[in-house]
Write a structure and sequence with these properties.
Length: about 350
């Protein structure tokens, strides 16, 4: 069974959008607009799996929306909305909670990391987070999902859920005329030199929104001075840059900065090493500062401007939600028929 190609991805409105989010996900979102129909979602329901101050959640939802638009996502040609405005996400997540197995969720490394030692005190929502993520994608029967490396395991679980639903309800799916499979098995798109951007302070840790030190990350709203300071202070080692990829392997901090350079300049890491192999970090960092400021500066400035205009941002989200619901609702009705729920017609 073949499905129409459709791209879906989401970003949590939990503050501090950073270079990892930008290079690992948002730049891919922008590029895919040329070749695919795309749906990009600000996943506010995922955000509340850990405590969010309500006023901050509202502000952060608008800020992620502003970042999408400032980075070059066209909300007229494609769809941009916040998750809680389309009820199908929650409805399908419930069905998927009944399809997914506890053993599958127990394997999720992100839950283990986020729940930490005090697992008994984590929200139930945090535990079933991956079911909601599968519902986000599959409510649209989306086929391609651009994400950073850290979401790979969640994408595999989404495929397992889709497969089990197709198997468990195979007879009903055929009886309702949907062929042999109702859901596609969504494919992750995890490509390029910056699928896992690391902390600027520690090359063994992922760059993250929640890391206490602001020097560990470049935020999309950082100004030129902050970007320059953070890159200059970024941890490195005393050796000059190597001339080939093999030379980066034992040097996580160097590898990270080269990957960031390559992604910002639309090159491969090998290209960057061709230009900078043998150079000292001081020279390389100056070039990286110039590049990062040139690429990120205009996006940060546009974001700050857009985020002030609540009426505009909220109208983008409302319009996107309406168009998203028009796709998700018929799919959800079909799921209800397949599962055997009696529904109002
Ligand atoms: P979130 O909000 O943590 O991150 C948004 C996107 O940024 C990517 N990312 C990174 N990429 C490279 N290096 C990093 N250091 C880095 N940090 C974050 C993430 O991989 C992600 O692509 N569960 C998702 C949100 C989500 C979703 C979905 C994604 C909810 N439903 C459906 C795709 C499809 C998350 O927490 O992303």
């Amino acid at each position: 069974m073949s499905f129409k190609q459709l791209v879906f991805s989401g970003v949590q409105p939990t503050g501090n959008l950073h270079l990892g989010n930008y290079l690992g996900a948002i730049t891919k979102f922008v590029a895919l607009q040329e070749t695919h129909d795309c749906i990009y979602c600000v996943v506010d329901m995922h955000a509340i799996t850990v405590w969010q101050d309500p006023a901050e959640l509202t502000r952060n939802t608008r800020e992620v929306t502003a970042a999408f638009i400032a980075a070059g996502i066209d909300p007229k040609k494609h769809i941009v909305f916040n998750q809680s405005q389309v009820t199908a996400h929650a409805e399908l997540a419930w069905v998927f909670n009944c399809v997914a197995r506890i053993g599958w969720l127990n394997r999720m490394t992100q839950f283990k990391e986020k729940a930490g030692k005090d697992r008994e005190n984590a929200s139930v929502g945090l535990y079933v987070y991956p079911s909601l993520m599968a519902a986000d994608i599959l409510a649209y029967r989306a086929t391609h999902v651009p994400v950073g490396e850290d979401q790979k395991q969640h994408l595999e679980l989404s495929r397992d859920i889709a497969q089990k639903f197709n198997n468990d309800f195979g007879d009903a799916i055929r009886a309702h005329g949907f062929g042999d499979a109702f859901f596609p098995l969504p494919e992750p798109i995890i490509q390029g030199p910056a699928t896992r951007v690391m902390s600027l302070r520690d090359g063994s840790k992922k760059m993250s929104k929640s890391e206490p030190s602001d020097y560990s990350r470049i935020n999309l709203t950082d100004d030129a001075d902050a970007i320059a300071q953070k890159i200059r202070k970024a941890k490195t080692d005393p050796e000059p840059l190597p001339s080939d990829l093999k030379g980066l392997e034992p040097r996580p901090e160097a590898d990270n900065l080269v990957g960031i350079f390559a992604a910002l300049d639309n090159k491969t890491k090998a290209d960057v090493l061709r230009d900078f192999g043998g150079a000292q970090f001081s020279g390389f960092k100056s070039a990286l500062v110039d590049l990062a400021v040139a690429k990120l500066g205009p996006i940060g400035a546009e974001m700050k401007k857009l985020v002030q205009d609540h009426a505009y941002i909220d109208s983008v989200l409302a319009d996107g939600a309406q168009r998203a619901a028009a796709i998700a609702e018929p799919n959800m009705n079909a799921v209800k028929d397949i599962v055997g729920f009696v529904r109002r017609k």
